[in-house]
Task: structure prediction
Amino acid sequence: MKPRKRILLFLTLLLLLVPVVANAAIEPSIKKLDDISDQALQMVKVYRYEDAEKLLTHFETEFLKETAKGHMYSMDELRIVTTAHDEALKAMNSSTMAHEEKIHKVTRFRLVVDALQSIHQPLWTEMESPIMTVFNDMKDAVHNGNHEDFQVNLDSFLSLYEVIYPSLRVDVTPATIQQLNARVNYLDHYSPNMFTETTGQEELEALEADLKKLFDDMTEDESDPSLWWVIISTGSIIIMTLSYVGWKKYRAEIERRKNRLKERKN
Result:
């Protein structure tokens, strides 16, 4: 493991020891929904899928009560939350889905619920460090001409982007989302161009700039004493996502080794 990755992992582990400070400005009923989504994620992490399913079902009941009260959510927000919730619930009912994939689905749901009610920095912004670390590893792979390493890190980046994507749809303008998606799709479909064409490398640089701007625009002024509470966040979400990415990398490496063995036998 590279030194900077060990440091990143160490810092996220430290965050696990820090309690989350609740934002008193959040309406109690909305805070309750946020707490339910967090509890569901905690249950999944310890393999208590039935308990997570009950919490997700309970969330649906409470969420419907809030919308019936006339809580102002746009149709897009309702669709985004409902879709993320349905995917998380299906994951709990799946007997074949891997544990890491279940965490992936419920983490997406957890982040989008937080994005729906966060007044200041939403939890998905805490994903900046792992996302940019993987992105920099992609750039290093291109610079070194390492196609395999690039593909592994590309898969990791796409997984991380998928985790925060529903939350982006809640917090970010459609124009920004459209531009980001266009660059990510180009990277995904034309990855060989990163090594052979100037246009591909320019797209990589442009995506990096867009990602930095995305996170910078969502960052509050930490000099404001009233916002210190946002500095303390849930490191467990980050480390669970990093574990998922590590699992994806492991599977990709195993698959490559199998293919190499088949080629040697042939």
Remarks:
- Residues 24-119 form one domain.
- The radius of gyration is 20 Å.
